[in-house]
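Minutes, methods subgroup
Present: GH (chair), OT, SY

1. OT presented the first of two proteins processed in the latest run. Sequence and structure tokens recorded below as shown on screen.
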Amino acid sequence: MTHTTRRELMALMTGALAGTALGGNAFAQATPKRGGILRISAPANPSSLDPATGGAGSDHAFLFTMYDTLTEWDFETLKPKPGLAESWKFTDPNTLVLNIRAGVTFHDGTPLDAEAVKFNLERNKSDAKSNIKADLASMASAEVTGPMQVTLKLSTPDAALPGILSDRAGMMVSPTAVKAASAGTLNRTPVGAGAYAFVSWADGEKIVIKRNEKYWKSNRPYPDGIEFSIIPELTTGARSVTAGQNDLIYQLPPRQKAIMDRVPSVKVFNGPTLYVFQIFLNWAKPPFDNIKVRQAFNFAVDREAFVKAALAGLAEPAYMNLPKAHWAYDKSVAALYPYDPDRARKLLAEAGFKEGTVIEIGGYNDQDSVQRQEILIEMFRKAGMNVKFVNSPIAEASAAFFGPEKRNSGLLAAWTGRPDPSLTYSLMFTKDAYYNGGRAPVPRELEAAIKESRASEDIETRAKAFATVQRLVMENAFVLPLAFQFELVAMNKKVQGYRPNLLGKPKYDDVWLES
């Protein structure tokens, strides 16, 4: 396949997925100005401000401000583009050469050179506390081949790696700060090379960052700083924007759209994303160690009804971890689990499951999460399942399921998407991946198919491999996908330059404030 054809395919994907701002052309802006503090209502306290050790997808909204990545992603297509690595090249299928941008320093003055990049990549792959080892599974070694050049030797061909380096694995942390930090302190005192430098973190209340005056991107960032107010109750967060206490709120629940549309001082941005609500299943732990129980759960949910009741119709029913318009979506896999509570009951009986047995699933304690839980509880009840949600704040609930405790057999949460789909599947469905809640084995053919999905740059070859990956994941019912939520961001009218993106994780690269 030619490069032009690949671009055309990505353009088709973009046309199908790209969102627009409600109420007009969002991108016709006046001349940007410097100054002011951007005040943001954030829905969750971070699990960590160290990109290697964090465990929540909601962390990215903070991390992207303080850490630059080796590559970046295009807002509309997620195609990788230059970042801290100004260029890269596969010199052969098992060798990736990264040319590092000159003149960049970390917030503490440490040079961001080839040695710093090598240090970070090796830490992300090998540190005992790293949660992103799977991201760099294909990297056999990182070698300094010039003052500003790093050569990655791969154990297997990995065409997804440039995209992967636009996420946590490519976030560069100051080696000086890492070496100086005592156990567990780096997650509270981040030192990156991003547009903003860390100032303070009042746990569960506020995170303050300031402009990096030596940032390498010309005239960026525009605001003097950002203040994130941690407001888990999204209705309260929305009110803080309409009242002028904050300037912007992201991850706004769909039920708030009609309310915010009626506020003259507020504008709302809307667009499709890869953000999927789902129930993560620990298939190493009863009852989900039985494939028939996992399949029964998938048959028990009416996804169309869930979208209407829980998300005001501003979502797409999810039957796998990719939406319809994605180039790797497979229509046949989407047909595996039509709503069928009778079949769910039959599978449960075949599994020897005793009707009425309580199944505890972890969840979050905010209003919208509880509403989603109530809708699901009723659907499960109709299929003979007695599901109980055990709720706690996002960081705590995530740690309880993915961390050492393994407290619950499931977790109702969201997968926030990744720039390359192979990363989504490797992070959830390989044996020792962090988001494999039980670190349980998966079929060898699944791991082989995930590996195959990264072996070629040809998009048709990759799509064929992903069809196998998705079928194996869903036939084994390793997850219960529910719905892809649309991005919904509301802000007052002095906020300019905001652009939605396909990941649905806000970036503020071009945001500025009218005085």
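2. SY then presented the second protein from the same run.
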Amino acid sequence: MNELLTAVRAGRHHDVPPLVLSLDRPGRRTALAELKELRKEVRGWDWQRRDRIRKALLVAGAGCHTGAAGCAAWIGGRDLRDWTRSPYPLILASLKDRDPAWLGDLAQRFAGRSALSEAEYSFVGELTRIARVPLPVTDNLVTGWTELVGAARWQRRTRRPLTEILRDDPHTAVLAPRLFEMPELPPQVDFHDAPDSQDHWPGALCALAGDGVLDRSSLVERCVARLMRGGRSVDQRFFLAVLQRLEATEDEEQRHLRDWTAMAADGIAPVASHAQQVLVRLDARGALPTRELADVSGALLFRPEKKLVRAQLTLLGKVLRRDSSTADELLPGVAEAFGHEGIDIQERALKLVARYLPAVAGPEVRELLASAAAQLGPVHRETVTALFGGLVEEAPQEVYEELLPPAPVLRRQEPAPETVAELVEEVAARVKAHASEHWIPASAVLDTAAGTTGFEQALDGLVRLARSDREELTDGLREALAGVHFVEHGLSPYMVDPRGVSTSHGLSVVVASLLGLVSERDRGAWRAKTVVTGADACAHAALNGVLLDRVWEASEAMSVGRVPFLLATPTWHTGAVEAAELVERLRTYRDLDVHPGPADFAQALLRVRRGGGPERAEAAAAAEALGTGEGDRLAAWIRSEDAVAPVLRHPATTVSRPSAGTWWQRTTAGARQVLVATRERLVIQRDFPEAFHWLGRARLPRAQQCYHWGPERSSHWTATLPGDPETLAAWLMPDLLFAADQGQRGAVGFLPALAESAGEAGGAMHLALAYGLGARHPEDRTAAVDTLLVLAARGRLDGTVLGRELAILVDRDLVKVNRTADALGTAAATGACRTVLTVLAAMLPGLLAYEKTPRGLGDLLSVAAECAERCGTDGIEPITGLAATAGRKGSSQTVRQAARLLATFGDRETEERPAPESDRKATIGDQINT
């Protein structure tokens, strides 16, 4: 036994099988107990030491287990795996004295474990071959089999056809059918929809069915059952591809009639389309009962996919032409299309009803159709009245009520943890969540608002308890963070670089300093990096530099132990500090004869709620009464109503194509930027620490892509200036430009936080929101919709300004109309129809004036018409150009929806009129003086 343990500790895995086989049953049990202790010990080693003995430990433990269940659990242990060559041949060698029944039991148990790989599948296959038992068909084993098949395709210089590999595998006939029963297909079953390809799984499976390796009729049944069950879209497409290649016979199609109707009603679009085609074939053969057609039509015509709805209306039209006596059964289903969002669908359904209404025998059906037609909009009102006469009752006019989310309410931040145990748990959780980060790309973890307030709580708690319980705190942190990279090896340069810092890095800096892991030389060199300079310096690095400057200052304060708490700890969840509370904090500092840290006090000033009002006036007076320099600075800051960096508006005064050489065209990428500038604030550059000076300098519009752009750490960006949303919107505007114009992902996440902040939403916020509504990615547009709704709920949204900004961005080719239509449609669907219509009423005139219709204009008009029909047009000025568009020849979506929207204005005047000059100035503001 000692010889076995020596070989394991030395990592001599090839020597292990004969040493195991030389032990008797009691000897193996004794050795196993020692191996379990060694396994626990190994978990605390560094990875290089672990890797040297991992394989030997795995083989020895497997051979020493006398029970199949324990052996399977040992072999499946993830801590015993490595990336080198599989040790399973050695495991088989150490088990060669076991009886076949025991090996078969091991194979069954191991095959049921999760995430089997190619090597593990081979191991199970070899066990069953030796034991002469059937292969245990489990989902995990099938996953390992697909990995082996995928690897076999690349074993030669020329790729082997997949069909050939599967045909040669003796287990294909048993394992392949299991694919149709798994909850999800293995990722190795790659699928590309190439109908004639035999090199991918659907084609290969069908080829094997043609060769008799797989049962064709069984595959058809399994495909239908799998499609009926639903699941991931990629899986559904796979089984649909198999079914289409198998080409179900007429008997098979007839046998599954009810399945096709269910798929057509509820399946994903490709599945529903295939089922619909089968129903068309069944109808052509006279095998589709009218009752079944009526039932499926009622559900299918309710689907949003216009192609499916049109095809179903075409099928219904064929059946009605062939036998008009079916009108009583089929026309109620046709009437379901009256509720479709597509006006062309509504028109087709109305024409079909009008054509076959005379064939309807029962008055009940006529009343039902009339009731359904009553929901059609004003554009169809004349036709509906002529068709049904007095049967159509005028719907009672309901009072429209705008549905907006509750306006956000300020929430007080929880106090810092008061005990060492609570603080250590909080800090360890936040640090470990990001301990594996290196230089983080734009797709990294998103810091939420809770992330910032939690960071501030933890930072304040560290300062407080380092003063009162330093030894207990350091011991607890050292134990809780054992194994974390920076605790073992010190801070890495990326953790102290303003270009990529996050709040978790800030905590790591403080913890490393508290544990004595940062030398004085490194602290000085790294803190110097917090000062961001240069013409190409961006807002992200500057705001990150402010965070780093604060944590370095806090680290130095903890080493002295005089600071009782931090001044800048937020009062509210937005990051704001209440003025009266800051006065009390300064009073405590004065009484303790503690001088505030410059960075901490500067951040507190930037966060304090300032401006007019009796409460602010009282706080300013109380601050002056402190008799300290910081109190006087706070009083002056509270009384000031100026933004940290006042924002200038962009000079795009009209919606017209820009001429060459205008300022918004001069960018590094040649884009047509529409951005805003900020003026300087000398008080920031004069009285604040150097790391804050970037915030007080003038900034001209400049489209600049940054490596670290986006919202991944934006919670501390917005919490740096919680009362200045206009300033932050101006500084971070390039992110939004790239999100809309170039499709950068994740750049809109900071907008909802700005909408909740205390400051007013002016031109920069509305321009930022316009970019967000036109972002390429749906999740970004969703964040913009949230922002729109929050601003509207707070009464801070100017829909006219937003609409004109959107028109300008469309004119500069920075925002796509169809994306904007999707975002505004989402906002309208929440119940904000009046808000959305106000935006569109200002946006549409510029778009309707184009000679060539912009792509997506029909969708935008559809959203406007839907809103107008629901909330009415009282108070909305007629839209210039709408009548001309509605009067064009043709039946395009744009023309139809323009007519639909025009009908909601009734007989009101629609002649063109220029925007009032006062409104234009309110939107655009002054030109930037360069």
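Chair's summary of item 2: The chain has a mean pLDDT of 86.
Next meeting: continue with the remaining queue.
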